[in-house]
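Lab channel / #folding
Pinned by the channel admin:
"Please post every new chain as: sequence first, then the structure tokens as a reply. Keep commentary short and put observations after the output so the thread stays searchable."

First post following the new format, from NK:
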Amino acid sequence: MPLLKLVFLGTGGAVPKADRMLPAIYMEDWLGHRVLLDAGEGAQYRLLQIGVSPPSLTMVAVTHMHEDHTLGLPGLIITSRFLGGRLKVLAPRTAHGVLERLGVEVGDSHVEERFKATCVKVCHTVDACGWLFEWDVGYKLDLSKVEGLPKRALTELIRGRPVEVGGRVVTPEEVADPAHKRFRRLLYTGDTAPCPKMWEAVGNVDVLIHEATFADDVDPAKAHDEGHSTVDDAVEAARALGASVLVLTHISARYPDKRRHRELASRVVPPPHIYVPEDFETLLVKL
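Reply from TO:
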């Protein structure tokens, strides 16, 4: 079952609070990938608190080089090196030179057979990537169309590979259940103002983790000029991207708690289902 674990290690933005630390989200998928989304100050300590060792990370995906998203990175790099690992960091290309000098493997994408991470440009005040993660869960076959095919052929078709049976090539598309989604997708925006060009580039996603720096007490135009979004902006993005799950994070320290964000989210009908997590809250998502 495609199950995704998200642990929100820091849900604040720019200025920390005692109970709301700087941006960092731990993501673990059913294939065993361990990904840290942004690395706010003290990120390695928060990982250790949930039992995750820095060298065990598959990668750290940094959205941009503002300090609230990167101050925890040097500690992660040094600890990983001491423990015999070499951290892989995904970041915007303009940051690669700086990161290479820190002795890490740097890239702006990560591709495996069933898992892919890609930088998607967002609308912030500096060069910034939203990170799009995509999982290939294979085809679900229509049993009425594959009757009599050998088990080996079924395995290949599920994995998306054509097979030759009895002198004829059978493609996955001809025998697949049309109602089944082969690819499951999550987008983490990092910091961004409303960004229609990003929505067009991405297409649909299942899960959207979107910043909501402001609730409804700030002029949206001011928020957008600062490269940030309101709750309403995040909801608009979720609808544009067809997300069934929306997570709101990067909450400004101007709010003593998240009650207003939750109140605004509760008014949204129909879906997406909206979550406003606290630090160290875990969300399990069935994709």
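NK: Residues 13 and 250 are 5 Å apart (CA to CA).
TO: also worth noting, The chain has ten helices and 18 strands.
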